Every structure is written in C-alpha cells, then in structure tokens.
C-alpha cells in the first residue's frame, strides 16, 4: 500500500480534558470554601448536632447546584470531558447529594429533639407542622431517596430505560422544593445581603445552564438549520445509513466522532430520541448517521421517508481529534462501533492504523469505504475476524499489528465487552492513559 505524506496534526501540551476537569474541581472547591465562610459568619447554634446538620444541608445544596451544571450538556464542557465521564460524575455526585441530605435531616431532627426533650419522630412531625419549608424538604428528600434507589446498579439493570428516566425527572421537582426550603429557613442564606446574593447567583447560574443547554440551544439550532432526511440507504440486512440535510450546516459545530440525539418527526416516533454517531465527517452540506437494528427505534430508521423533519440535539461527545497528543494514531473499532471511527479516519492527519474487529466478513459495515479512505489517507487497515475466543486483540496481537502502539494515540469504539478487553490490553502494553481515547456514549441526566 502506498503511503501518502501528510503533515502531522498539532498536538496539545495540556489535554483539554485536564483543563476542564481541573476547572470544575477548582470551581467546586472555591464554592465549598465560600459556603464554609458564610456559615461561620452566620454564627453557630448551641447544639453541635444542629450545627453539623446545617453544614451538611448547605453542602448538599451546593452539590445539587453542581449536579445541575453536570447535566446541562454545555458544549464547552461536553467537548472536553465527554458525556460518558460527565455521566460518571453525575452518578457519584447524585449519591453525594443523597448522603449529605440524609445526614442533614437526621442530625437536624436529633438536634432539635435533644433541645426540646421530644423523641425524634415527634420532633420531625412538629417541625413539618410548625416550620415553613420543612414539609417541602421532607418531600424533596423522599424523592431523592427514590431516585437514588432506582439508580443503584441492582435496580438499574432491572428497569427499562424509559421507566428509570421518568423517575429520574422527579429530581428536578426535588431541586425546586429543596431550594424553596433553603430560602424559607436557611439562616446562612439570609445571614447577610452578600450571602443571599451568593446563593441566588449559584442557583441562577446552575438553573440557567440547564435551561440554556437542554432547551434554548437545541431549539435555536433546530430552528436555524431545519434538518430533513434526504436519503435512506441500506448498508446490509440490518444496517442502514440516513443522510440529513439542512440550512447553514457549515455553521453547525459538529466534529467527526461526535453524536446527536436524533428525533425523527414521524407520527409514531416523534417522541423518541436515539443517540447515533456521525458515520462521516461533517462537510457543511450533509450529516450522515449509520445504525444497526438493535431495537424498535433503530429498526424503524429503514422505513423513514425522505423529507421527514428531524429534531437533533447535539453535537455531543469528546471522541474527537481535539484530544490528540501524538502525531500518529491507532483506530480500533468493533462491530457497528466503526461509525465514529470511520468519520475520525476521514478527519485525521498523520499516519493511522485502523483495526476493525468483527465476527465475520459480512459483519464489516462500511468496509469498502474504509478501504477507499485508507488508500487515500495512506493508512494501514486490518480486518480481524473470528470468534471472541481466543482474544485476537490481546496484547501480543496488538503489538504485532502495531509495533509502535505506545507512541500513538489510540481511539477505541465498540461493544462494552470488547472495549473493556482492549483497554486491559493497552494497559498491559504500557500505553499512557493520556493517549487512549474512548467514549461509551452514555447520557448524563
């Protein structure tokens, strides 16, 4: 195969992911310090249980505001951190909220019970009946406990995604109730005009981010671009490509490797959004997605008519060349995970090695396109077929296919089991984590 000479892509000195992650940690730490300062300035109650309970409640409220920022799907964060990692942070932060607010409720209840000589149950009932905002806080905590319970791994594996998502939406109700409780009885919130301004600013920014990222930006982009299906092309018996056109697509900030939440506005599917990656690098005129029939939503794509209106949310994802750290790369795809890999190959500069893992030749979706791209780009292409045992992407096999793999960026996309195995192999080969790029395309919130 003839190798074309291409100019190596610029590499980043500090990974964008590190910049964004450090910024988020610094933001949270700075606000935690400000909360502690306002808490001290407001003075302490005589009962240490109440003191600790109030502080736990304040940090629970701060984590709720931080959680809203994580699920807002703001483009700057999403492009640098990736939605799968934001989802992981979202999960950990959610359980942090649950435990801090439970601590708040228990310590406050026992603290007031100790001061009034009432038992904790009667004390809680008394607070709910006599103190403004406490009943709303109890309802908010109950909702958070339910959401936390259904978000546990045991429950999550047994619930349909639609059921889990519907229950999860009640978190927004809990957030509103908790905020009104804080406004009504929070002594730190009302201790000074500065404290009040600070809390309103924190919650205003958090809620504003959600409205902007989840509502305003998608609506504005879809009104501007007016997306429609231009063609539906079967790639195999169970794989189909959908071409989408619209206005001013050259101004849509989409990159190869990213995905959209696609909502095709037909009578029976307008309410359902599915995440599909771009299977070709955006060219300013057309967007293409390629999907395998794995459920009702993806199977129905084959029957969509040209001209159908499309509502797309995105682009999302950090699986792009923005995160390159080396001039040369390895692209590893499994099954239909080849779609973002094929788009990345089109976008990459520098020498690339493509490894495509499938069970058999007939499962190699878009393989002809990969061959043409590899020839044009001067890339090496390896089609690896066969059963999953023995592991044909084990460390020894990867080192044989790409002897200098430790000096390359690695982009990986495929089924979860394959990705886990390849990540283990890359670790055994000593490939630095900074050079490994993958995304599981989970959705935060």
From TrEMBL:
<feature type="transmembrane region" description="Helical">
    <location>
        <begin position="24"/>
        <end position="44"/>
    </location>
</feature>
<keyword id="KW-0472">Membrane</keyword>
<dbReference type="InterPro" id="IPR039261">
    <property type="entry name" value="FNR_nucleotide-bd"/>
</dbReference>
<keyword id="KW-0001">2Fe-2S</keyword>
<dbReference type="GO" id="GO:0046872">
    <property type="term" value="F:metal ion binding"/>
</dbReference>
<feature type="transmembrane region" description="Helical">
    <location>
        <begin position="167"/>
        <end position="185"/>
    </location>
</feature>
<keyword id="KW-0274">FAD</keyword>
<feature type="domain" description="FAD-binding FR-type">
    <location>
        <begin position="222"/>
        <end position="322"/>
    </location>
</feature>
<dbReference type="Pfam" id="PF01794">
    <property type="entry name" value="Ferric_reduct"/>
</dbReference>
<feature type="transmembrane region" description="Helical">
    <location>
        <begin position="50"/>
        <end position="72"/>
    </location>
</feature>
<keyword id="KW-1133">Transmembrane helix</keyword>
<dbReference type="GO" id="GO:0016491">
    <property type="term" value="F:oxidoreductase activity"/>
</dbReference>
<keyword id="KW-0411">Iron-sulfur</keyword>
<keyword id="KW-0408">Iron</keyword>
<dbReference type="InterPro" id="IPR017938">
    <property type="entry name" value="Riboflavin_synthase-like_b-brl"/>
</dbReference>
<keyword id="KW-0560">Oxidoreductase</keyword>
<dbReference type="InterPro" id="IPR050415">
    <property type="entry name" value="MRET"/>
</dbReference>
<feature type="transmembrane region" description="Helical">
    <location>
        <begin position="133"/>
        <end position="155"/>
    </location>
</feature>
<keyword id="KW-0479">Metal-binding</keyword>
<dbReference type="GO" id="GO:0051537">
    <property type="term" value="F:2 iron, 2 sulfur cluster binding"/>
</dbReference>
<keyword id="KW-0812">Transmembrane</keyword>
<feature type="transmembrane region" description="Helical">
    <location>
        <begin position="197"/>
        <end position="217"/>
    </location>
</feature>
<dbReference type="InterPro" id="IPR001433">
    <property type="entry name" value="OxRdtase_FAD/NAD-bd"/>
</dbReference>
<dbReference type="GO" id="GO:0016020">
    <property type="term" value="C:membrane"/>
</dbReference>
<feature type="transmembrane region" description="Helical">
    <location>
        <begin position="93"/>
        <end position="113"/>
    </location>
</feature>
<dbReference type="InterPro" id="IPR013130">
    <property type="entry name" value="Fe3_Rdtase_TM_dom"/>
</dbReference>
<dbReference type="InterPro" id="IPR017927">
    <property type="entry name" value="FAD-bd_FR_type"/>
</dbReference>
<protein>
    <submittedName>
        <fullName>Oxidoreductase</fullName>
    </submittedName>
</protein>
<keyword id="KW-0285">Flavoprotein</keyword>
<dbReference type="GO" id="GO:0050660">
    <property type="term" value="F:flavin adenine dinucleotide binding"/>
</dbReference>
<dbReference type="Pfam" id="PF00175">
    <property type="entry name" value="NAD_binding_1"/>
</dbReference>
């Amino acid at each position: 195969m003839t190798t074309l000479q291409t100019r190596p892509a610029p590499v980043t000195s500090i990974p964008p992911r590190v910049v964004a992650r450090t910024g988020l940690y610094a933001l949270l730490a700075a606000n935690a310090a400000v909360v502690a300062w306002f808490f001290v300035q407001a003075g302490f109650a005589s009962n240490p249980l109440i003191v600790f309970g109030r502080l736990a409640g304040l940090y629970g409220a701060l984590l709720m505001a931080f959680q809203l920022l994580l699920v807002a799907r703001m483009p700057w964060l999403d492009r640098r951190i990736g939605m799968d990692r934001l989802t992981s942070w979202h999960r950990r932060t959610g359980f942090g909220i649950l435990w801090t607010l439970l601590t708040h409720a228990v310590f406050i209840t026992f603290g007031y019970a100790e001061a009034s000589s009432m038992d904790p149950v009667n004390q809680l009932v008394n607070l709910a009946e006599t103190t403004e905002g406490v009943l709303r806080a109890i309802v908010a905590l109950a909702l958070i406990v339910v959401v936390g319970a259904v978000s546990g791994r045991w429950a999550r594996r047994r619930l349909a995604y639609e059921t889990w998502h519907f229950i999860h939406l009640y978190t927004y109700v809990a957030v509103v109730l908790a905020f009104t409780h804080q406004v009504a009885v929070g002594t730190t919130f009302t201790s000074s005009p500065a404290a009040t301004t600070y809390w309103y600013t924190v919650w205003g920014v958090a809620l504003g981010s959600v409205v902007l990222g989840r509502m305003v930006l998608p609506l504005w982009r879809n009104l501007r671009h007016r997306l429609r299906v231009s063609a539906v092309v079967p790639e195999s018996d169970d794989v189909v490509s959908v071409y989408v056109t619209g206005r001013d697509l050259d101004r849509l900030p989409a990159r190869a490797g990213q995905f959209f939440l696609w909502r095709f506005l037909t009578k029976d599917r307008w309410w359902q959004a599915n995440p599909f990656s771009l299977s070709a690098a955006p060219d300013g005129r057309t967007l293409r997605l390629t999907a395998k029939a794995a459920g009702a939503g993806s199977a129905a794509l084959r029957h969509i008519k040209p001209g159908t209106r499309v509502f797309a949310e995105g682009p999302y994802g950090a699986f792009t060349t923005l995160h390159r750290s080396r001039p040369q790369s390895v692209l590893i795809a499994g099954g239909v995970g080849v779609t973002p890999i094929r788009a990345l190959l089109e976008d990459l500069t520098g020498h690339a090695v493509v490894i495509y893992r499938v069970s058999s030749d007939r499962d190699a979706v878009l393989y002809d396109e990969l061959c043409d791209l590899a020839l044009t780009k001067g890339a090496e292409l390896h089609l690896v077929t066969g059963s999953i045992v023995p592991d044909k992407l084990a460390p020894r096999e990867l080192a044989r296919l790409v002897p200098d793999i430790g000096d390359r960026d690695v982009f990986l996309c495929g089924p979860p089991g394959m990705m886990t195995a390849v990540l283990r192999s890359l670790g055994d080969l000593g490939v630095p984590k900074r050079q490994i790029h993958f995304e599981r395309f989970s959705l935060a919130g």
